[in-house]
Structure formats: C-alpha cells, structure tokens
Design a protein that fits this description.
By secondary structure, this protein is of the alpha+beta class. It is 54% helix and 7% strand. The protein folds into two domains: 49 residues, Helicase, Ruva Protein, domain 3, CATH 1.10.8; 206 residues, Methane Monooxygenase Hydroxylase, Chain G, domain 1 (Up-down Bundle). It has a four-stranded antiparallel sheet with strand order 3-1-2-4. Helix 2 packs across helix 3.
Length: 296
C-alpha cells in the first residue's frame, strides 16, 4: 500500500482479514485494482470500499448489476447464503465466515468466503460438519419458503462428491466397511469395469444418499433452533448485499471454539517460546450459488 493515496477510513487490519491466503503478488494486484476502481469514480483518494470492490472483482469476477433479479429471487439468495453462514458458524468444525455477498458476479448469484482450518488429516466428524454446512443453503430455502430452487446445484455437486469420497475412498461407511477403492496409480481410468461388485455399488449409492440426507436433516434442525437469528441475518444481507464475520458475530455471538483454540495456541506459544503463524490463516474457500436454471 506504500505510495498509494489512502483515505482516512482505511483499516488495514480489517482489509487483511478479507484476503486470507493471498500472496504478496495477490496483495499488490488488489492495491492496483483498488487504485483503478477509485480512478474510474474520479476520486482523489482510495477509500475502504474501493479495496473491497477490488477484492470482490479479483476473486469473484466482474460485477453484473445489469443482471435482472426480482425481489423474490434476491430474498431467496439472501436466505440461501445466510443458511450456509448460520449453520457453519454454529458447528464445531464448520469453516468460519469471512464474507458473504449477494451481488451477481460472473455466473454466480451469490458467494460466501470461508476460512478453512489447515489440517494434515481429517476426521469423519470434521467432514460431516462441512457436509452439513454445504446443504444448509437449500435447507434454509425449504424452511423459509416451503420450496427449493436450482440455486443449490453447486452445493449439491460438492456435497455428493464429498459423501462419495467418505464411502469409496476413506472407508468411513459402516455398511461398505474399511475398504478404499482409490487408485493412486491412475490406471483405473482406462478400465471399463468397476473394482467392486454390483451389490457393493448399490451399497455405495445407499450410503451416499444416507449421508447427505442425514446432513440435510441436521442442517434443518440447527436452522429451526435459531430461526429468529437466521431471519435477522438474511434481512441484513438483503438490505446491505454484503456482510462480514463481525455482522454474524453480532447476531449469533462469538464461536466458543474460537476462544478455546486461541487460549490453547497462547499456551502452546508460551510453553515452546515459538512465534510461528498458524496455518489456518493461509487458505480460503469460496462457495458459490450458481445461476443454472436451465439445468433444473
């Protein structure tokens, strides 16, 4: 940011929280884009909103205000994204929210940025929490409007792949058992037969559906238990079109697990005299609600 003419409303700590996982080159790109955004608006100083617009453009693509969205569709998208944010916030292994927007960009009608924890191994409980968060958008739609939409296509695709991996690759299904059909050699791509029987194939289909159904039911239970807070969050998102982690924390309160992890990290730092930065600040995840009505 050196050399840029900045407005007095610039909060560097806040901006750093919006760019997890960005390299030095990425940050430089954001600064250049923010300067261009300010120049297009004939501003003499670069303001906070210019940086936010630059980050959105780099991650999500060009903003498409010309895309016609009815108030009903906008409210559906707001509840969909709020469902993701709400459930993820309340789950022990849900990824903490960074930002949610319902401004159309590219093919996306809405998008949410999360900060996943960096892990070397992952447990069943951690994957199932992520699976529950993925289907929470559709769960919120069904609870609030009594119907579902095609906006969950991307979520369902990812959820199905995640559940399939649990069963077929990681051996985490009681019915299929501790077996893995993952081929690290890549030779299975050239085989015309599956490495398991038709009976096992049926069991896999059953287990994948069971996992997604259980995650969906769990998401609905969480949303129903805090429906009033979901409504507040969705209304804020509907009016402002963009919300941040602080907005979710004001409604739902701080995540108790974050406090516990911070105290444990402080204790580890004190005992080892280490100043290493934890890995969970170095990666980011984007969740999109894609406009695929032609595939309904």
């Amino acid at each position: 940011m050196k050399g840029l003419k900045l407005s007095s409303d610039i909060d560097k700590d806040f901006l750093s929280k919006q760019t997890p996982g960005f390299s030095g080159a990425d940050i430089a790109n954001v600064c250049n884009e923010a300067a261009l955004v300010a120049a297009r608006k004939n501003k003499k100083l670069i303001e906070k909103q210019d940086f936010l617009d630059a980050i959105d453009r780099i991650i999500g693509g060009l903003e498409k205000r010309s895309k016609v969205i009815t108030p009903e569709e906008k409210r559906t998208i707001a509840y969909h994204e709020s469902g993701h944010a709400s459930v993820s916030w309340q789950l022990r292994w849900g990824n903490p929210l960074v930002k949610v927007t319902i401004v159309p960009r590219g093919k996306a009608l809405g998008a949410a940025w999360y900060l996943p924890e960096e892990r070397q191994i992952t447990t069943y409980e951690q994957i199932f929490d992520e699976l529950t968060s993925l289907v929470a958008g559709r769960a919120a739609e069904e609870i609030v409007f009594g119907k579902i939409s095609t906006g969950a296509l991307n979520d369902l695709e990812r959820a199905t792949k995640m559940a399939f991996s649990l069963v077929v690759y990681y051996g985490m299904s009681p019915k299929v058992g501790n077996v893995s059909y993952y081929d690290s050699t890549g030779q299975s791509e050239w085989n015309f037969t599956k490495p398991f029987s038709e009976k096992t194939n049926e069991d896999i289909d059953t287990e994948v559906k069971r996992l997604i159904d259980e995650a969906y039911g769990r998401a609905k239970e969480i949303i129903l238990a805090s429906r009033d807070k979901l409504d507040k969050l969705a209304e804020v998102l509907y009016e402002r079109e963009v919300i941040f982690r602080d907005d979710v924390e004001q409604i739902y309160g701080p995540r108790p697990w974050d406090k516990k992890e911070e105290s444990e990290q402080d204790g580890d730092t004190a005992s080892t005299n280490s100043t290493e930065q934890t890995g969970d600040t170095l990666s980011t995840e984007v969740t999109e609600q894609t406009d695929n009505t032609d595939q309904a």
